[in-house]
């Protein structure tokens, strides 16, 4: 059954780093409004903005102290209303970020809970007695250390899977859940098209709050162990959808890392909890549970296998949201292409692979102009709480400062949070003030202004990809066409078909820094897109140049 969002292309904005309209060094809502035409030009329909609610910004706004107000750093509620209006005027849709696994320790609910750990608001959180003078159990936070923080002058602790300033909300409490539903519907009434839903798999805990075997010398265990044991998240997500999103035909995309085997259809199937969820295959490749210091490199063939498996597993169930990066990850082109080979052809090739997959393409701000990782020279340049934790962990595991900063440069979330590079003026045209985070030094060669009019730029290639995706002739096959892996017998070739009865296209990417000759498996009808000037083809032999990607119509 067709849904309004099936043929849309989405874009993630990290407001703090997108565009600063008032010179305070921080991106804001008026900055976003001023750039809507830029996004319209690119071909964007849906815009997800990371949190702009009131927040102490311990975790960059993912610690919300008031769900009903815009943080003054980003602007006012009038600005938010105007963004909704201006987007609507352009046939664009706004998603906000729904962070409801936890709130900020500055939220009034939590303040009231601390005032009276036996009172009504205490049950909006998980407050438990310590075991002797130790926390209730040995789970490790996503940001390092225990998930339990002691409440002063008591032997009680409160639970926080993320930072201690992000107390987990108690989803076992129907009163709390209904407070959240009220808030969600209040925003949907305002005209939001839906939400990106933050860390939502964490809302169901293993309520025994018992230890799991320690997996490191800190005596703690990965939170994944708890999530494996927790049963019943589906009941909560079903109720959430029934009480809110479903009533508005909202588009929702879940950030889900640990759904259980065989449960995908419950999440994004026909009557799923969400419309879609992100495909994190690229992001989790080589990731170690121990921490970034232990992450492994991956090969192109492994990347291909991960993407293809996910496509085949998802195709008959629903639509995932395809990404190569987001605000929690290093830049996609830096993560997936060797530094010394990371040129415009490689960046265009990666974009073509992602956008031609089956699913909803999500482009992260700056991906469309080929922004890359930053070169942080010291941990002092880093803002991100998670990166600082991972840096300390690497040092604790015996890495030198030099090795630890190398890890930070490879995996830090701040790589994706350096200011958007608009032009080659000071601070890349992001702000007239002092930017809150370093601007990538390569802004003079990588910026939007130098690419918009250049038909050979990464930006223009992304525009072509989106135009093809929306073209009358090919949109059906690109949106709904079956996914079929091709040419897996070759190394470093990422090739697949998208096909309907009456329309077939094939994408072939030579994902390496040297040419490769391949035998075309199907008779081709025409060349729809190519990141090189021309394609060398005679009969069924194709000579692909380094990082060349072609999109062909086939019979
Ligand atoms: O991320 C959830 C999540 O699992 C990631 O934080 C991941 O563990 C982390 O990036 C590893 O460094 C969401 C948001 O996307 C993230 O920005 C927030 O920090 C987190 O939730 C808490 O709200
Ligand atoms: Ca500002």
Describe the structure.
- It is a single chain.
- By secondary structure, the protein is α/β, with parallel strands linked by helices.
- The protein is 28% helix and 17% strand.
- The strands form five sheets. An eight-stranded parallel beta barrel has the order 1-2-5-9-10-11-12-13. Strands 14-15-16-21-18 form a five-stranded antiparallel sheet. Strands 6-8-7 form a three-stranded antiparallel sheet, with no helix packed on it.
- A hairpin with a 6-residue loop joins strand 14 and strand 15 (493-500).
- The chain is globular and about 80 Å long.
- Calcium ion is lined by residues 20-22, 24, 26, 28.
Topology, please?
Layout: E1 10-13, H1 29-34, H2 36-42, E2 46-49, E3 53-54, E4 66-70, H3 77-89, E5 93-98, H4 108-115, E6 127-129, E7 148-150, E8 156-159, H5 174-189, E9 194-197, H6 223-229, H7 233-243, E10 251-254, H8 264-268, E11 276-279, H9 281-284, H10 300-314, E12 321-322, H11 332-336, H12 344-356, E13 360-364, H13 385-396, H14 401-411, H15 449-452, H16 458-470, H17 475-480, E14 482-486, E15 493-500, E16 503-510, E17 516-519, E18 524-530, E19 536-538, E20 541-544, E21 549-554
Parallel strand pairs: 1-2, 1-13, 2-5, 5-9, 9-10, 10-11, 11-12, 12-13
Antiparallel strand pairs: 3-4, 6-8, 7-8, 14-15, 15-16, 16-21, 17-20, 18-21, 19-20
Helix pairs in contact: 12-16, 13-14
């Amino acid at each position: 059954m067709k849904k309004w969002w099936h043929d849309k292309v989405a874009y993630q904005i990290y407001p703090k780093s997108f565009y600063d309209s008032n010179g305070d060094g921080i991106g804001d809502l008026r900055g976003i409004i001023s750039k809507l035409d830029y996004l319209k030009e690119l071909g964007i329909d849906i815009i997800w903005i990371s949190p702009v609610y009131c927040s102490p910004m311990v975790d960059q706004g993912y610690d919300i102290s008031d769900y009903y107000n815009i943080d003054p750093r980003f602007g006012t509620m009038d600005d938010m209303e105007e963004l909704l209006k201006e987007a609507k005027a352009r046939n664009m849709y706004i998603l906000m970020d729904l962070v409801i696994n936890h709130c900020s320790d500055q939220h009034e609910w939590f303040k009231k809970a601390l005032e009276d750990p036996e009172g009504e608001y205490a049950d909006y959180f998980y407050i438990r007695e310590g075991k002797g003078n130790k926390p209730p159990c040995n789970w490790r936070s996503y940001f390092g250390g225990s998930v339990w923080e002691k409440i002063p002058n008591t032997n009680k602790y409160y639970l926080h899977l993320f930072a201690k300033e992000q107390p987990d909300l108690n989803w076992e409490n129907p009163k709390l859940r209904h407070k959240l539903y009220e808030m969600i519907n209040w925003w949907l009434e305002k005209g939001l098209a839906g939400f990106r839903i933050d860390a939502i798999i964490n809302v169901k805990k293993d309520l025994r709050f018992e230890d799991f075997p320690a997996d490191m010398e800190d005596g703690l265990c990965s939170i994944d162990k708890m999530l494996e044991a927790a049963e019943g998240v589906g009941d909560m997500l079903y109720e959430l959808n029934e009480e809110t999103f479903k009533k508005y035909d909202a588009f929702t995309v879940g950030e889900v890392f640990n759904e259980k085997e065989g449960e995908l259809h419950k999440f994004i199937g026909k009557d799923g909890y969400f419309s879609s969820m992100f495909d994190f295959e690229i992001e989790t490749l080589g990731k170690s549970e121990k921490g970034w210091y232990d992450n492994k490199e991956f090969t192109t063939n492994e990347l291909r296998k991960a993407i293809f498996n996910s496509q085949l597993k998802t195709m008959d169930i629903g639509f995932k949201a395809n990404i190569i990066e987001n605000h929690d990850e290093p830049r996609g082109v830096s993560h997936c292409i060797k530094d010394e080979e990371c040129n415009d052809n490689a960046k265009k090739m990666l974009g073509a692979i992602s956008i031609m997959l089956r699913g909803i393409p999500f482009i992260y701000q700056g991906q469309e102009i080929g922004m890359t990782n930053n070169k942080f020279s010291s941990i002092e340049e880093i803002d991100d709480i998670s990166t600082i934790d991972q840096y300390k962990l690497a040092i604790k595991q015996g890495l030198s400062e030099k090795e630890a900063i190398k890890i930070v440069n490879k995996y830090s979330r701040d790589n994706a949070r350096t200011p958007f590079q608009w032009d080659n003026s000071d601070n890349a045209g992001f702000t007239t003030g002092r930017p809150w985070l370093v601007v990538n030094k390569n802004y003079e060669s990588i910026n939007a202004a130098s690419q918009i009019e250049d038909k050979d730029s990464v930006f223009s290639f992304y525009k072509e990809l989106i135009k093809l995706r929306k073209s009358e002739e090919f949109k059906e096959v690109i949106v709904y066409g079956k996914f079929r892996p091709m040419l897996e017998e070759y190394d470093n070739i990422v090739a697949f078909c998208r096909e309907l009865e009456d329309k077939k296209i094939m994408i072939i990417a030579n994902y390496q820094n040297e040419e490769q000759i391949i035998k075309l498996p199907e008779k081709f009808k025409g060349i729809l897109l190519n990141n090189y000037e021309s394609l060398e083809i005679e009969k069924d032999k194709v000579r692909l140049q380094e990082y060349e990607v072609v999109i062909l119509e086939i019979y």
